[in-house]
Structures are given as C-alpha cells and as structure tokens.
Amino acid sequence: MDEPDEVAEFARLFSGFLERMQNAPAENARESVRERLLAHLGVDPEELPVVAATFSSFDLPNVQLAVEAWFDDFEVIGLAGSDRNHYSFSELLEVSAHRRYGIGSVDYQRVSIAVDQEMDCVAFGFYLGRQGDDRYVALLRAANPQYGRSGVQLEVIATSKEAGERFLGELPALILQHNVFRGQVVSFEGHEFGAGVGPFRLHARPGISRDDVVLADGVLERVEREVIGIAEHREVLLEAGQHLRRGVLLYGPPGTGKTHTVRYLLSRLPEFTVVLLAGTSIGYISEACGLARMLQPALVVLEDCDLVAEARDHGHGGGPLLFQVLNEMDGLTEEADVAFLLTTNRADLLEPALSQRPGRVDLAVEIPLPDAPGRARLLSLYGPALELGPEVVDEVVAMTEGTTASFAKELVRRAVLLGAENNSRPGDAELRAAAEDLLSARDTLTRRLLGATDPVPYSVPPEATPGLAPRSY
C-alpha cells in the first residue's frame, strides 16, 4: 500500500537534487576556458581569425622554446574534457561556449634533447602571452598519429591578424636559433601508429683517436681531406668560388673498418650535426637533409646504401627511394656545408649516377682487407693486455692473411678468454690457440660472418700448442 508513496518521494528528492545541481554557484564549476581567453585578449576569441603552422614531429622542444622566446611574458593553461584532440582551435572555442570544456592541467611529454638530458614539453596547452602591445593565445599540440596529426601543430589567435602572421613568420628563425639538436648525433625512428618520422634517437659522440684507425697507407688521409679538410678551410674555398657540399663513398668487404672510420670522423667533427640513416630509416632522407640544411655544418651518414640504391639491372633499383636519395644530394646548394658519407659492401651494385657523378659522390675510397703491417697493428690495438713475443705476432699475422679488422678483434677476445679459463695472463700460447681455432674447418661460417675470405682451413698439428688444445665456441 505504501509503495506508490515511496516512489513519489524518491522522484521528488531526485528532482530536487537535479535542480540544485543545475543552479549550483558558478564558483563551484570549472572556469570556462573561453572566459579565460576573453579576459586575456580583451575581445571575444571567436571573433578573431586563427592562423596555424605545422612542424616536424621531432621539433616539439624547438617550437616550444621559440614560442616562449617570442613572448615578453606568458602563462600556460590546459583544457579539461574528453575528445579535445578531435577539434581544431576554432571548434574548441565553439564547444567551450557551451561550457563543455573548462580550465584543466597542461599535458606534457618528456622528450630527450641530449644523450643524458630530457625536457618536459607541452603536448597540449594554451600559451596566453604578450609581445609588446599585442596579446596572443597559442595552442601547442605534439604530433599524435593516433589522431591523424603527424606533426607538431601550432594554432594562434592574436588581437590583430597581422600580429598573428608576424608571430608565425618570425618563428622559423627562432626555432633555428634555439634548436636543441644542433651539434648532436641523431637517428630517425618511425611512428608507432603509422607513417612519418617519430622521435629522435640521440647518440653519444664517439671518442676515437686517429691512432685507433688502422687502414692502409694513404687511405685515411684521402678521407680526412675530403670530409674534414673542406670543413676546416670552408672560408678559403667559398672565397675562391668552390663548393662545400661533398659526398664520400667508403666501400670494401664487411668488417674492414668502414663504420669504424665513420665513427672516427664523427669524433673529429664535434661541431657537426650528424644524422645517421641505415636500413629502412634511409626512407627518411628528406627529413635528414632538411635537418642538415638547417643545422649545418652537418654530416649525413647512409650506411649500407646498396640496400636502397642498387643498379637498375639488378632488379631492385630505380625505385622512388633511390631517386629521392639522388635528388636530396643534388638539391643542396653548393655553399651548404653538408657532407654525405656513404658506406657499402657492394660498390658494384650501386647506381653509377650515385657512385661516379661529381656532386653526388666526389670521392670513392676502398677500405680493403688489412695488409700484414695492418694486421700486426690491429693485434696491438685490440690486445694491449696480451704479452706477445714478436715471433708469435709474425706467425699469427702470416696465418691470418685475408682476414678483417673484425676478425682480429674476435681473435684477441678469444685469446683473453682462453687465458681466463686457464687462470693465466693471456700471451703467446693463448693467441696462437685462438688463431688455430678460428682458422679451423669448424669455424668456416664464423670467419665469413666476421667478413674474412675463406682460405683453406688451417690444419692444427697436435703438438702445436702443448697444454692448450684449440676449442670450439
């Protein structure tokens, strides 16, 4: 009998609750973002035109620093509410007029700006700034391929259209001035949610001295003159009407020291911005060259370039990526202090236009297998802790003809391991045993993987190294 009365009472109380919520004091609700913008600008933000610009996804810290450098003073506010990533600035203003969105916390994204340094960047936030008599609101958003935004987006309204256009017009120079990647070693990565360039990977610059590079006489000098010499004498060359842009191709068998030579050049050019491209990342050649042009002097390294630039008659060349690489190399102005450094194990496969035509590659240098003096130097370089007699060094050098620098490095490592297993300081016996082991028939594939030619397997006499039988690994 009492149930209808209980239902009616519940309805009455619930209706009262809804009415109180609807009439709640404004101070208990979030401040409207539209009202905050109105207070800052002094005019209705919906009446002002929006000017916008898009930047590379990796430029988020540079855009933020440029924006903050433009303003005399500013504050950053966030936006509370869902689905905001789907709306443009104009649409957000329209939606905010219905108080759907209020002031919230700023979204930040932690970005690496050096090997051991990170920066908290604004991933979604409104800059309320002043510059002279002009007032601005700039919405900065990080790249977000998940929402179809592949680049950093900046949308600006100002108290005059001219002020907004002037702001965006000055921004590229400010980005260049405050660029955090100048003089760093970077490589590109793809986006997790689709095509386009993702975040940078930053690398520590190698610290390799000239004594650490073992090449045949005259080889390193040729490379240094083309890459380093032009950088050191850029002013003289420009005054004489000579171009700075250059391309160097290092070719030779795997394991001979091409990458090691590249690392040495990076050590000698500490002021250069370096962009490393290898494998599928060579597809980002346009972005790499754009960064190199902006942050020159710069070095663009294309490792194993034969993977994307094979000659057309081998069935894989002639594709868009090959032409893109060639066009980017040709597209730099002659005064651009940008060096291209290419490496390949198969120079015979390269497109002639890439490897022979001046302006694309000016110098092709073979990095050959080390000769006998080179192999002796490699043993000294990689094995300073080994106690070796000159007779054993000569013997091992003779045994290892046709091997690579990588082979010598592994040879020394095995000698040290043999000494550790026998609780002794590695020396002549360990080096000889390691050489016999690596040159035996059972290590044929290992030698190939280390880049060595495949000589007749070394025959190990039983009495060769008493007490130290060769081992397999």
From TrEMBL:
Domain AAA+ ATPase per the UniProt entry, residue ranges: 244-371
GO molecular function, one term: ATP binding
Matching InterPro entries: 26S_Proteasome_ATPase (IPR050221), AAA+_ATPase (IPR003593), ATPase_AAA_core (IPR003959), P-loop_NTPase (IPR027417)
Protein name (database record): 26S protease regulatory subunit
Naturally occurring in which organism (per UniProt): Kribbella qitaiheensis
GO biological process, one term: proteolysis
RNA-binding as UniProt keyword: no
SMART domains per UniProt: AAA
The keyword Protease belongs to this UniProt entry's keyword annotation: yes
Region called Disordered, residue ranges: 452-473
